[in-house]
Structure formats: structure tokens, C-alpha cells
Amino acid sequence: MLANSPLRGLGRARSRGISALVALSTVATLGVTACGDADTTLRTPDGEVISTVTSRIARVNIVNADRDYAQTCLAPTATDAGRTDVARVVVTDPSLLDAFCALGIGSKVRAVTADAGSIPAYLGPALGAVPTLGDKPTAEQVREAAPQLVLATPSTAAELSALRQTGALGSARVATIEPGKDWRAQFTAVAAALNRSAAATERLAEFDAEVKRIGTVMDAAHNQVSLVRFTPDAELLEGTANFGASILAQIGVQRPAAQRGADPVVVTEANFTDADADLIYISAEGEQGMSRATSVLDSDRWLEMGAPSWQRVLWINDDVWFRSSGLAAAWLVLNDAKSSLNSSSAGE
Predict the structure, then answer these.
(1) In angstroms, rounded to a whole number, what is the distance separating the alpha carbons of residues 176 and 155?
(2) What are the pLDDT digits (tens) for 141-189?
(3) Partner of 24 for a Cys bridge, out of 44, 54, 79, 139, CB 3.0 to 4.6 A?
(4) Domains in the chain, please, with CATH?
(5) What is the 3-state secondary structure (H, E, C) of 79-141?
């Protein structure tokens, strides 16, 4: 296995929760002083650390509840032969940051022209700490970032214009990435702008090889998985066009007949049981989505379906599965499937 293989880090990565809403990775501490040294970690009598990570909501287990997002990003990659490396980059669209994470070069991002809190949490603390300049950066902020390259998307033309209007971009090169619906195409486009096309090809090949292996080892073709998403407005049977579903499809996982269309379907009294399958992955968007989810999960009608009665229902991270895309996020979804396709919420 290559030294910079994503299996080195992501295979061991664990999730800190199902969404930013439920900040699930809190470890309880107890102040203890001994021999002048402070040990604030709560431990058992034999010295083992006691973790209070929330691993269960409404009697349903959370997949990879203790995932450490500091492990999301992969090992650094090299530039293409004969090409010059880029040391300092300003990004105008947070959706482009996944590629930096997957290429292991997040440290090159010196600023993002976006609002504070807009950097996806799954990218980890290093990228989360990158300065966010809002949509109207000052000349001083741009000079401090001193970009050699600015990466933008058509949807962030205003932010790019604001950068130019500061007059502080100097000789920085500008590359506009067409996002599209194909996360692989976006990844390779960002990699090309960063002179890392060969590394991108290698990283995608590593991912595809692991997907194929997992699909075979876990007999994915004989697993039927339902994706149920609770939003503030509805309970949805997700289709095939969302990011998480596309990774499941690549693994070879089957979907219930009612969920084989591209678009999500709103759950009604008439189609309620279309949510059932061998395994149900559930997620919630925001506090209202969570409230709707817990109400449904406690209902008799839900509990009488096959998967709930077999305790084959699991929480997944809504932000990663449905509101992100990219190779780094794809590894997280793959590792969720790897650790849960044959799991349940029993025995907790």
C-alpha cells in the first residue's frame, strides 16, 4: 500500500456525530491533582479512559459516533513532474476545499471569501481554522493572504470581483472551476489547477479499488438499504441523485424499489412503509428535522416495520451524506458503509 494512501488515515477515522446540530463528541472530565500534575480525564479504577460520546439517539445507534475529523484529510501529494507547486491559495467557494483535503494540501489555503462557519466541519480543525473573509475582503486581508492562485466557481463571481477590486491580488493566477454534478470532475479540475493531476488520478484509483473490495467482502449486492432523511418540512425517501446514494451505488448496495428514482419522495400515509428495507440509514437536517425524526422513530407504525423491529436502523451524518461532495467526503461515506452494513442498533 502506498505511504500516502487514504487507507492510512481514513480507514481508522471515526465520526464525532451525525451533524453539527448534535455536537456529539463531548468527553466528560473530572479534575484530579496528584503529585503536582493535573489529570482531568475521567477514568475507570483500572485506568481506562471513560468516554461519554453520544452514540445513540432515540434507541438508534450512530454510525461512527466517535469519528475524529482531524483524521479526514489524506497524506500530502506531490506536484506533477515538471510543474511548479503553488504555496498560497485563496478560495472563493467552500465546496472546493474537499479537494485540498483529499490531496493533503489544506495548508496551502490561506483564506476563504465566505462567512464564518461556512467551512464544512468534516474537513477537520486545520481547514476549519482558515481565515474567512466574508464576501467583501479588504485589501489588507488579501495582502496578508498573498495568494499565488485564486480558485473560484461561477456562483462566486461576486466574491472574485470583490477580491479584484481590492487591488491587492497582484500577479495571482485565477482559475474558475465548473462545479457540475460530478464530484469526480470537480476534484480533477481542482487538482489540475494545483498541478496535481497525476496525484488526483492515483487517489481516485485508490478509492475505486477499496470500493470494489468492500462491495465484494460485504456482499453489497445482497444488501438493500433505505435512505430516510428528516428535514424541517418533511420525511423524505431519498432517491439516487444525492451524494451518499451515489457512493452506495458504486459499492453495489441495492435500494428499495420506491427509492430508485433520482429525486426524493415525500413520505405520506400511503407510502410510509416504502421506507423499509434490510437496513435503514436515517439522518436529520437541523433541530426541526431532528424533532420530526425522534417523533417518527418512537411511533408504533415505524417500530412495526421490518428493519426497526430487527433493530436494523442507524443514524448517518446528514452534512456528509447529503450536503457535501468530494473525495474526502466519499471516503467518510465509504467507511460508514464499511462499518455498518452488517450492523444493528441491538445490544446497546
Answers:
(1) 10
(2) 999 999 999 999 999 999 999 999 999 999 999 999 987 779 999 999 9
(3) 54
(4) 6-70 (no CATH), 89-195 (3.40.50.1980), 201-340 (3.40.50.1980)
(5) CCCCCCCCCCEEECCHHHHHHHHHHCCHHHEEEECCCCCCCCHHHCHHHHCCCECCCCCCHHH
Establish how many alpha carbons lie within 13 A of residue 129's alpha carbon, considering only the half-sphere containing its beta carbon.
Answer: 7
CB 55 within 8 A of CB 66: yes
Q: How many DSSP H helices and E strands does the chain contain?
A: 12, 13
The end-to-end CA distance of the chain, in Å, is 36
Q: How far apart are CA 341 and CA 227, in angstroms?
A: 13
Taking only the tens place, the pLDDT of each residue in 21-44 is 444 333 333 233 333 345 545 555
Give pLDDT, residue 48. 58
- Helix or strand or coil: residue 249? helix
Position 91, amino acid:
V
CA distances from 242 to 13, 292, 322, 332 (A): 23, 21, 6, 15
How distant, in Å, are the alpha carbons of 14, 38, 273, 304, 314 from that of 310?
25, 46, 15, 10, 12
The three cell numbers locating residue 61: 445507534
**Helical ranges in 152-285 per DSSP H:** 157-165, 183-193, 197-217, 243-251
**pLDDT attached to residue 179:** 79
- Distance between CA 287 and CA 329 in Å, rounded? 23
In angstroms, the CA 159 to CA 134 distance is: 8
Which residues pair with residue 109 across a beta bridge? 89
All three cell numbers of 346, joined, read 441491538
Cα distance between residue 243 and residue 323, in whole Å? 8
Nearest residue to 113 via CA among 86, 94, 129, 88: 94
Task: Report the distance separating Cα 68 and Cα 290, nearest Å.
Answer: 22
